């Protein structure tokens, strides 16, 4: 990836800040960008890459500013977009929010950061933790001390000489379930989106090796497919040795210090709904409406969901709410035209019932509004829908200290919807 220049523009296309890295383009070339952008016909489907002669503009819009990268070579556009989003993330870490005002207030430190992000158009350091070690913000002053070793090391995401009295690693496997169920009970769409997040408190420069019940690994070592998971769209943190993973499926890495996301994955698979919701709605002479909602948990009895919310849409002109539940409590939220049924604890294999009664002055609104789906929010600790398992987490460090690894599994709702019509 090689870039000629980076520009930050306001919403009208005026240049706020620019940095010329290679000197191979005229800096006023950006004047053509906004004109070309406005010429795109379909505003709902804007192309993030605009070609103009031998120059390509690759851009991202964030709040009320544009970040535009300019290149003259045939570069990987996806890498450039990823780099621009990384820049946005760093600016947000420094200024809380990236917008026109924060750019005008911090242009000195932004120039410093732009110089660190790239060298002669090639990406260098974009790790905010490392940058904050030597580019600090105190009012409008920049305190630049001696460069930390991490900047010049091969391991740019971790500083040297880190010491902890107690060496620990916390690993969370978090899966979100996206599901859409029709009113007849058919699963129309289902997906599992997962992430492995870590919190590392380890001294020195340790190497970690993580083993999962990965289907391809199990096939390679002749263990068959039992209890193995086929991961799709796997994305790793930059610390993971990709060549090692491609060779033998071992996830080997020197971790950053503190919190970071090690990897994310997706499974586009048929998921049995963890919660089955059956609503029965009765209307009486245009004067009232009654709901009977049955909620059933369809996961193993040894697991328990916490902080379950079942959000049931009701007509906008409903009033006089009355509720009766076999478990939990209900509240009417008129500003959102819904009832929220809260269950602090919902064990697996259980079934609960809720009845709601509303006065309904007219039936006109109900007929014209359409019927939004029921939504479910939940969190199930010590449980994964995909069946992914951490088989081992080895910690290797030259001093040979003992470290404690802690592993947690959590399944939570993503976009979890059940249609009522």
Automatic annotation (TrEMBL):
Gene Ontology CC terms: clathrin adaptor complex; clathrin-coated vesicle membrane
Membrane-spanning residues: none
Species of the source: Brachionus plicatilis
Keyword Glycosyltransferase: no
Protein name per the record: AP-1 complex subunit mu-1
Entry's Gene Ontology BP terms: intracellular protein transport; vesicle-mediated transport
Family: Belongs to the adaptor complexes medium subunit family.
All residue ranges annotated as the MHD domain in the record: 166-419
Membrane topology qualifier: Peripheral membrane protein
Major place of residence: membrane
CDD domains linked to this entry: AP-1_Mu1A_Cterm (cd09258), AP1_Mu_N (cd14835)
Domain of life: Eukaryota
UniProt-listed Pfam families: Adap_comp_sub, Clat_adaptor_s
Statement: the UniProt record of this protein carries the keyword Protein transport: yes
Keywords on record: Cytoplasmic vesicle, Membrane, Protein transport, Transport
């Amino acid at each position: 990836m090689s870039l000629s220049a980076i520009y930050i523009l306001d919403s009208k296309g005026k240049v706020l800040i620019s940095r010329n890295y290679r000197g191979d383009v005229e800096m006023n070339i950006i004047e053509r960008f906004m004109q070309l952008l406005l010429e795109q016909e379909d505003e709902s489907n804007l192309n993030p890459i605009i070609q103009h002669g031998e120059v390509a503009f690759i851009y991202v819009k964030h709040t009320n500013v544009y970040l535009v990268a300019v290149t003259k070579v045939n570069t990987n556009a996806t890498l450039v977009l990823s780099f621009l989003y990384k820049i946005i993330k760093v600016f947000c870490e420094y200024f809380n929010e990236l917008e026109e005002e924060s750019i005008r207030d911090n242009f000195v430190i932004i120039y410093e950061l732009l110089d660190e992000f790239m060298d002669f158009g090639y990406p260098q350091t974009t790790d905010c933790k490392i940058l904050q070690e030597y580019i600090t913000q105190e009012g409008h002053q920049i305190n630049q001390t001696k460069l930390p070793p991490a900047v010049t090391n091969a391991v740019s995401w971790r500083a040297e000489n880190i010491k902890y009295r107690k060496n620990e690693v916390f690993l969370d496997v978090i899966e979100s379930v996206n599901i859409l169920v029709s009113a007849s009970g058919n699963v129309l769409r289902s997906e599992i989106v997962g992430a492995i997040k870590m919190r590392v408190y380890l001294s020195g420069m340790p190497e970690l090796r993580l083993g999962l019940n990965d289907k391809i690994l199990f096939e390679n070592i002749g263990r068959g497919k039992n209890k193995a998971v086929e991961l799709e769209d796997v994305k790793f943190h930059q610390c993971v040795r990709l060549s090692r993973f491609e060779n033998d499926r071992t996830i080997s890495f020197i971790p950053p210090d503190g919190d970071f996301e090690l990897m994310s994955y997706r499974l586009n698979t048929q998921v049995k709904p963890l919660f089955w919701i059956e609503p029965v709605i009765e209307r009486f002479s245009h004067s009232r409406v009654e709901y009977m909602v049955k909620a059933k948990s369809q996961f193993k009895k040894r697991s328990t969901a916490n902080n379950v919310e079942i959000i049931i849409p009701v007509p906008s002109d409903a009033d006089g709410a009355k509720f009766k539940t076999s478990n939990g409590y209900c509240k009417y939220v008129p500003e959102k035209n819904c009832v929220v049924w809260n269950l602090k604890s919902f064990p697996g294999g259980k079934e609960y019932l809720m009845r709601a009664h509303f006065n309904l002055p007219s039936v006109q609104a109900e007929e014209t509004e359409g019927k939004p789906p029921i939504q479910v929010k939940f969190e199930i600790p010590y449980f994964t829908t995909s069946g992914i398992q951490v088989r081992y987490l080895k910690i290797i460090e030259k001093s040979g200290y003992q470290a404690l690894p802690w592993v947690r599994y959590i399944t939570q709702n993503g976009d979890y919807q059940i249609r009522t019509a």
